[in-house]
Sequence to fold (561 residues):
Amino acid sequence: MKKLINDPRHVVREMLEGAVARTPGQVLLSDENVVAQRDADGARFVAPISGGGAGHEPAHAGYVGAGMLAAAVAGDVFTSPSVDAVLAALRAVGGDAGAVLIVKNYTGDRLNFGLAAEIARAEGIPVEIVTVADDVALRDTVPRDRRRGIAGTVLVHKVAGAAAAAGKHVADVAALARRAVEGLGSMGVALGSCTVPAVGHPGFELGHDEIEYGLGIHGEPGVRRGRIDTCDVLVAGMLEPIVADLHLARGQRVALLVNGLGATPPMELDIVLRSALGWLRERGIDVVRAWSGSQLTALDMPGCSLSVMKVDDELLALLDAPTDAPSWPRGGAVNTDPIRHMPPKAVTDEPDGVPSPVGLRMRDAAAAAANALVAAEDELTELDGKAGDGDLGASMRRGSEAVLALGDGAWRSPEHALRAMADAMRRAIGGSSGPFYATALTRAARELAGKDEPSARDWHTAFVAAIQAIGELGGAKPGDRTMLDALHPAAQALGRELEAGRPLSLMLAAMVEAASEGAEATAAMEARAGRASYLGERAAGIPDGGAVAVTVWLGAIASSF
Fold:
């Protein structure tokens, strides 16, 4: 187990101390794991209170703030807080206006929050209980009132908090929260388990291509196991039972929450959001608010859940009401016109043009180089993964496919061919490879402008100019462990062979040999440019992927003649 903790027995208290330290509007009770609003006024405003076991961060303490929860109670990891802890929260922030306990539907939570409510009522604090049971994965397994409470609870927190901040009576706050619960459905999917600090190993094991549908939020398995699939398919599998359970009809307004379970990056959550919006809109369901982020997690579990809540004008206003709770995601407005359509780009490749004889030879050589790079994708990816970011193979494949797709008009002259390849690679390749190759090809095209039948010396001049352009753009020099360490010796070898009057086949062979030797030599070089320079001695013994890529396409060009 690798976790940034001290003693597993103290993780909850130390976590809460850290969270409150960065939130001036909160306080942590000295004798219980309860986070409360610093200025809570239980005499004037209803106090919404929630909580549960730790491990769901930022829930529940992250939702303590004006306009949301008045207090949050934390138990041990995945363990209900005690009656005394809940009672301490009620006494700290509850008062004449009363309190609303928002409880996720687990036996321990219901018992402990319920008993604390009874004691508080006996002490004169009006208390209402709202139970959240939004997990539709259990719709065919248990009665509705026995379902688990999961991530949709966060939306109920917001509704109750805004209603309380508006000065509503305790019964009215509870009624609005219950209305939110009645129109709420959630379902999750896990790509793996989580590790409880006190246990030290994952709660369950999944195969590399397996997922769990309908999991809870305590590291327990789901209702069924299935195969990993595309995001669109997984999202449909979660939304179908939610929509059926809520009886959502066309035109129904809803709020959508895409919730990460702890180890899912924002990139993937926004892809899920995109899929969910598209699926719901196709069915005429009007998504008027949407959020994505890790709002109620299960420690470090990879996966997500979707929550859909019916809204009307009143509930929507409560979701939109201001709050200073640190973890409420804010915003939520849905962009109904997200794509700006740009005017057509200028086309440098004229598909109806006629290739010149030189252009045809260039097309054959370029095709050979491109196909060789596609075939070498795995090799380049592995090399780059050891001393870079691992994207070189895919980048070279995308650039190669773009070159292979060029029409006849691109090959009507050497200058046009080089510019067309530069444009294709620039558009197809992100990162550093695209700009380097596009710059080199553009500089070479400039050298060959107006030369429909370039001589060998013209090609050498263009090659040298291209290499200089790469050095100027990236600031690297031969010896810095980059692609220049293959390109520079190749250009030198071509120059020597030209001076000696060698035939084309020997010139090309000498270039390939020099490039290969240069690429091999990079394994012993200290990286002074590119991502490998960040690794220091850890990159030793590994040839530079960019230099190896040069040997791949240069060798293919030589073999094509």
